[in-house]
Amino acid sequence: MSASFLRRGLELLEAPGHGEASPGGQRGWGGPRAASTARRRKKAQEPGRNKATVKSRVVKSAIEEYHKKKAVNHLRENLQYMLKGRCVANKAITEQVLVQNRGRKSKDQPPKKAAKKKPEGTVFTEEDFRKFEREYFGRP
Known about the structure:
Layout: H1 3-13, H2 34-45, H3 62-69, H4 75-84, H5 91-101, H6 126-137
């Protein structure tokens, strides 16, 4: 609510005779601040524009505000930026930098790669198995 509405409401609710001050309680109208007080009262009673509002205020749309504050996905622009620069460092240099930045703790060390085992193949051929079968079981 604005101050003028409150003042008007209080004036309407005041009991008759309550609004006037007691004769000895206040200074007379002839005091040094009487003119400025009267001017202030007159200005407050005048109907006019509301001083509490901003001069060039524009009503904003709730949808526009939502779109402004909505999170934006920058993935596509970031990917284009990253893929644009195709300057790839030498693999040996990259490995050297990684080794230098590694700590001494075991958690910082890369897992040791086990040597690849060759698939165990048989030394014997199918013909050798048939020959063994004939000799051992006595089958032709």
